[in-house]
Amino acid sequence: MEYRSTFLGSNGFPKEGRDMATDLGRLCRVSVLLATFLAVLNVPAGTAPAGYVYVADRGNNRIVRMNDMSGAGWIVLGTSGSGAKQFNFPRGLFVDTAGRLYVADTENHRVVRVNDMTGAGWTAIGSVGAGPQQFNKPRGVFVDGSGKIYVTDSGNHRIVRIDDMGGAGWTTFGTFLGGVSKDQPGNMIDPAGIFVEAAGRIYIADIGSGYDLRRIIEMNDMTGAGWTPFGTWGKGVNRFDSPGSVFVDPAGKIHIADTANHRIVRINDMNGAGWTALGTQGSSVNQFSLPSSIFVEAAGRIYVADALNNRIVRMNDMTGSGWVTLGSPGSGVVDPAGKIHIADTANHRIVRINDMNGAGWTALGTQGSSVNQFSLPSSIFVEAAGRIYVADALNNRIVRMNDMTGSGWVTLGSPGSGVKQFSLPSTIFIR
To answer: Where are the NHL repeats (predicted)?
Structure first.
């Protein structure tokens, strides 16, 4: 089985102040890509037509699909624009089990669904605004098991759920009330991270830029029933500063990346029972610098994107026991054998390790554009047969190889917007 998931959106990055802005670029890279790494640990890809390679070619405002790395079956969907079969900086991509594609067409303020890569069944919903069937910079799209579509409508301070692409069952939750009515249900300043349980409960990390609303919100459903906010702005118990990520483990405990407080927090429930925090600012054991993402695997081990320390941290529990770090990741994937593959972007190479102790360290790549060379590789994917795919960003190409020796090295791509061309390919996905 293959595992891959990508989380895109506002992600709860600190926005306010000169120092936060200075760090934002570094934080974005580590947080988003590590969220990808963490998610692959137990998010199955489902069943869909196998073998296709999908590329998010955002710089060319299009989606690309091919049958294999020879470029056979090359299909492009999208040109720059706002009409049918056009996109403007599409950020979110979701492929359902029937092979249909959902795209968050961010700068066109709409969500698009197509049946396949011919654009058949093109259906778009949205225009810029805050009314029904309107969005303001939608950044992420997710389809649940019942087919309902959730959209992070960031600029409108709300979450949108629809039953289908006709907009049936249009339901929104969230509005901007500022700090005056901060505890009123629905008041969201800057909703960022979101987690939806199988039972339907929704958890939101509201970073609340500029207001005393740095908190976590739980609600039972999209009516806002059971609205429960927890936390205020600060550094002590029951306080957060720009919480960027929220995750609910199988036991129902809530884990938060309390980003600007340089710590992670676990609570038993939304009353704050069992409050446990780990972390101070720094780069030693039990220290973080702007931790931006958190993930808990079924066995209970905790993974953290320690953004400004440019590392992944894994620990056995909230005491910090078994603390292990792995530095400077780009994106990563865990193969069916449990080996971890990492796009080590800044070092222009890919790395494979057997476990989080770094056992079996194997690296491939130097900076360049020849065989066994990369230039800022940004994404990696390993298919069930073991072949490795890499988005080689600054070389404007996709690379496939049989294994970590580089055998069977095949490249596809050159700079441009034509057939078999890319502009800074950022993500590679096999379905």
So the answer is: 76-117, 125-165
